[in-house]
Amino acid sequence: MPSERVEQRREGVREEIKQAARRLMAEHGTAGLSLRAIAREINMLPSGLYHYYGSLDDLITALIVDAFNALADALEAARETAAGPGSAAQLTAVLEAYRRWAMTHPTDFQLIYGNPIPGYAAPREITVPPVIRGFSVIVGLIENLLQSGVLEAAPPYDVIPPEVEARLQTLIERDGYPVSARALFLGVVGWTQLHGIIMLEMFNHIQPVIGDVETFYRAQVINLLKTLGLKTAI
Amino acid sequence: MPSERVEQRREGVREEIKQAARRLMAEHGTAGLSLRAIAREINMLPSGLYHYYGSLDDLITALIVDAFNALADALEAARETAAGPGSAAQLTAVLEAYRRWAMTHPTDFQLIYGNPIPGYAAPREITVPPVIRGFSVIVGLIENLLQSGVLEAAPPYDVIPPEVEARLQTLIERDGYPVSARALFLGVVGWTQLHGIIMLEMFNHIQPVIGDVETFYRAQVINLLKTLGLKTAI
DNA sequence: TCTATAATTTGAACACTGTTCACAGTATAG
DNA sequence: CTATACTGTGAACAGTGTTCAAATTATAGA
């Protein structure tokens, strides 16, 4: 029977552990994520950490959940500060925030969208919800644009492969998402396209070819919205 | 002064080491890449391996170069076996081979396009050439389609950001690539778009949403070529 | 306030990891 | 046949995640 007070302190130490972990990751990359190094950082013995996290994997999972939520926060913030609610500018702001967050938090991004720790596989039932949170920001804006008519799915993105549409429909009904299959589809299309650029930039595969990745990315965001069927200019 | 005969045997052992490494990776993921495990596998002491590879990183680099070349082989093979040289079907075949190779060689793919080993960073001067080899297959086909008029860059992909075009032009001249900046640009656009899908599929981020990733990917390949400005139907 | 109980920290141990180095054995070349 | 270069050995070092009993500390109830 853990009392209120005890539980609060436990949570405090857990936070301290995570902060030390993030500090080490920022310095030495995802390679710096060592249980013993964390213990050293906060003046504890390695074994002591096991009272707060069952294993290093559990700690990583906690960091991943935090990272997904931080990304979602960044996307939501971009949506709020962007000019004109319901405008396409809001969507471009969010899509650009996606890359900006990735580039300013490379280790966190690798943690969630790469496979940075050998032997570790994230438990989906824990990590999926915060993923949805971030993705919902994009899909929500697309849904708005579709409903206001600013966006009208244009060929070839106006047709959804039947197998895919069925799955999306199931997902929407099962989890009660307030969006259309169309918005979800366009969201996935956009997400995958831009994610590829970020992933290649992150590991330095595209910069040597394209040079200025930022301009390329911005251009691709606009090209994406145009091909998806945006009616207004950006 | 290493003689012919000696060098040949060295190369044989090096191959044996790499094969053991690939076997372990296939079984235990990139996590299985342990110098000591490899040594065990081929009945050697860990220290013995240092006569063939200066360090684990050197071995990883060798595996990466092999993987990039294997990927390039797969793309070239897809190009050769596809019906109708110079046709768009050839390009779709190659683009689909890209994903197929990734999915049938997940550890190799993670090795080259992720950052699977903590603390390891690939030396670009060694890894870039085989990257170019694979990429050239795609860009070469695009160049063909552009010249034969089957592909005519359509809005919005008919304009190249000036900063990007300048860089591409420099690259073409410096390395003597027999392609246009336009082909290179469209190649990068397509590459990044599809790479995003593969990357998200690899780490199981997209399958839960979209269900049948294969159909989604095939649809996106076709959508890509259409938006890039393909004149003929697929 | 004192005590019984729960929470926390300790320290040692185990089985791993990559890497270095002097040494012994083996094959090669002159 | 011998001197030399090559190859593998074995021990050691510093690091890793993890487990467990013991010791310490803090909490809660009387």
The share of residues in extended strands of chain A comes to under 5%
Q: Could you tell me the mean pLDDT of chain A?
A: 94
Please report the distance between the alpha carbons of the first and last residues of chain A.
58 Å
Shape of chain A: globular
Query: Biggest interface between protein chains, with counts per chain?
Result: A-B, 57 and 58 residues
Query: Could you describe the largest sheet of chain A, including whether it forms a barrel?
Result: none
Would you mind describing this structure in some detail?
The structure is a homodimer of 234-residue chains. Chain A has 234 residues and is mainly α. Helices cover 70% and strands 0% of the residues of chain A. Chain A has helices at 4-28, 35-41, 56-81, 88-104, 106-113, 124-148, 162-175, 181-202, 207-210, 213-228. In chain A, α4 crosses α5 and α8 packs antiparallel against α10. The longest helix of chain A has 26 residues, at 56-81. Chain A is globular. The model of chain A has no long low-confidence stretch (mean pLDDT 94). The interface between A and B is large, with 57 and 58 residues. Chain B binds a DNA duplex (30 and 30 nucleotides) through residues 1-3, 5-6, 10, 13, 34-37, 44-48, 50-51, 55-56.
